[in-house]
From TrEMBL:
PROSITE patterns linked: PROKAR_LIPOPROTEIN
Name assigned to this protein: SusD-like starch-binding protein associating with outer membrane
Pfam families for the chain: SusD-like_3, SusD_RagB
Record's GO cellular component terms: cell outer membrane
Family named by the database record: Belongs to the SusD family.
Cellular localization per UniProt: Cell outer membrane
Main location: membrane
Keywords linked to the UniProt accession: Cell outer membrane, Membrane, Signal
Domain RagB/SusD: from-to ranges: 338-494
Sequence ranges assigned to domain SusD-like N-terminal in this UniProt record: 93-238
Length: 494
């Protein structure tokens, strides 16, 4: 019987080298070398380590990296699941059935469901690859002497932290530092039994703190690479997930200070100048992936699930729409309300937020619209949330006004924010997070942080009108059957 990824990690740290299909094939083993061999070979060919870092970025956008399923599409596939679990993304029509189990909230309570395996294996594979680079760079306590070596170790540590952070959010129902939640592997220590959440969070914070230092002064060549600001963003999210809002605000403010401009009014929605969330060169984008024609991305892609103007499931009958209760809370004078519109398949699809610029239904076949992982608006919202939760309501309101000015207009933004205080202010920031980040996977993180109860509107195919607390079984994933069957130190799903 094939052993699980985590159990394999305990036996040997492995790496898939190369940047093309050989690297991404989960069953191919002809290009597997041990970490010890990588250390030896990397002295002769440093490109091995470089290729592994590039491979992590490629794996994040790979179609069918773990299974043959059409929703196995890396981080952006997880983003869709998170948006559906939060209730903000409605499966408004279902012709092909790919998201029925998620939209119906049955996959997350069934540890045999494929969705759980995809999420678990995806993040632990990134942990595994990151550990290999860290070990080949001298280990967790290495002190690289060259700029290149510092950058490699910093990016590897940030990648490991990114994977563990999402694992904590997806497999723990609510933050409890004492609760055993995940197996732990840091390239030097292997614990295949579940360890307390505090141990995982300590590693994440240590990794990101190191990464911020190691990446200081580094200028990347493309946005698929992690730099200092991305590491600071991940650290801000980590502190916020723990409820440490003072440190979360420090990191969020550091991201804001790094100089990324806010998305302009015109960029927010078609037909504005330069509109649409489809181009990695957009100034507000901090982290993403430039999809080019030679990569050959087609139907099995995030755009193939979301965009009406791509040859896609969304165009052909699996419409993903904004929840109509959430939509009803967007003021008519908010430019973001125009991000959603009507198609022959369904109302309230994101046809003016995520779209192929040619804007012909089902036209884009080879996908060249880009993938977004992180943008600066997230940290205006997180900074405001942190300020409100640490008693700095004036600071929270000022930051919120700054964000909303491009969305509502300056006077309208000020008038909206001015009377807010206490729970009203905190609730408003959470609402603005849901509106601003729709379709980008971040509302789920905010739902967990705010311990919110979500109510579905009437435009969901499944479970319309029902409400779920953030710590409900249905809103977190299960440790998959493959892990339980093959890891003798785990015998329960969550």
């Amino acid at each position: 019987m094939k052993r699980s990824i985590v159990y394999l990690i305990a036996c040997t740290s492995m790496i898939f080298v190369g940047c093309n299909e050989d690297f991404l094939d989960p069953v191919r083993n002809t290009n597997v070398i041990t970490s010890a061999e990588l250390v030896e070979y990397s002295d002769q060919n440093p490109a091995l380590i470089e290729g592994t870092l590039d491979g992590i970025a490629s794996f994040m956008i790979q179609d069918r990296g773990i299974t043959t399923q059409h929703y196995d599409i890396g981080q952006k596939g997880v983003d869709i699941w998170m948006d559906m679990l939060s209730g903000d993304m409605a499966l408004a029509t279902s012709s092909y059935g790919w998201y029925n189990g998620s939209a119906n909230l049955v996959a997350t309570v069934d540890f045999t469901a494929t969705e759980n395996k995809i999420v678990w294996d995806y993040y632990y594979k990134i942990v595994n690859l990151s550990n290999s680079v860290i070990m080949s760079s001298g280990g967790n306590d290495a002190q690289p002497e060259t700029d290149g070596a510092r950058r490699i170790l910093g990016q590897a540590k940030a990648s490991r932290a990114y994977a563990y952070f999402y694992l904590t959010q997806l497999f723990q129902r609510e933050y409890d530092p004492a609760q055993p939640i995940l197996p732990y592997y840091d390239s030097e220590v292997a614990e295949t039994a579940k360890v307390p959440a505090s141990q995982i969070y300590d590693l994440i914070i240590s990794d990101l703190t190191d990464a911020i230092s190691l990446l200081d002064g580094y200028t990347r060549s493309n946005k698929s690479q992690i730099d200092k600001s991305v590491a600071q963003g991940l650290l801000a999210y980590t502190y916020a997930a723990k409820g440490d809002y003072a440190n979360a605000k420090v990191q969020a403010d550091a991201v804001i200070a790094s100089g990324y401009p806010l998305t302009t009014t015109g960029q927010l929605a078609y037909p504005g100048a330069g509109s649409g969330f489809n181009d990695i060169n957009s100034g507000s984008w901090m982290w993403g992936f430039d999809l080019t024609e030679d990569l050959g991305h087609q139907l099995i892609d995030w755009w193939g699930q979301i965009d009406y103007f791509t040859y896609s499931y969304a165009w052909a009958g699996d419409a993903k729409s904004i929840d109509n209760l959430l939509f009803s809370q967007i003021p008519d004078n908010d430019i973001r309300k125009t991000q959603f519109g009507t198609t022959p398949n369904a109302d309230l699809m994101p046809i003016n937020k995520f779209f192929d610029p040619a804007r012909t239904a089902g036209l884009q076949y080879i996908i060249t619209t880009d993938l977004i992982f992180m943008r600066v608006e997230e940290f205006y919202l997180l900074s405001a949330e942190a300020a409100a939760k640490t008693g700095d309501e004036a600071g929270a309101k000022a930051t919120l006004v700054e964000l909303l000015t491009n969305r509502l207009g300056a006077s309208e933004a000020a008038a909206y924010v001015a009377p807010l205080s206490g729970n009203q202010l905190r609730n408003a920031i959470y609402l603005q997070t849901r509106i601003e980040m729709w379709g980008e996977g971040k509302s789920y993180l905010a739902m967990k942080r705010n311990q919110a109860t979500v109510q579905r509107g009437s435009n969901h195919v499944f479970r319309a009108g029902e409400s779920f607390a953030s710590n409900s079984d249905e809103l977190s994933f299960q440790i998959p059957q493959s892990e339980i069957d093959n890891n003798p130190n785990i015998n329960s799903q969550n």
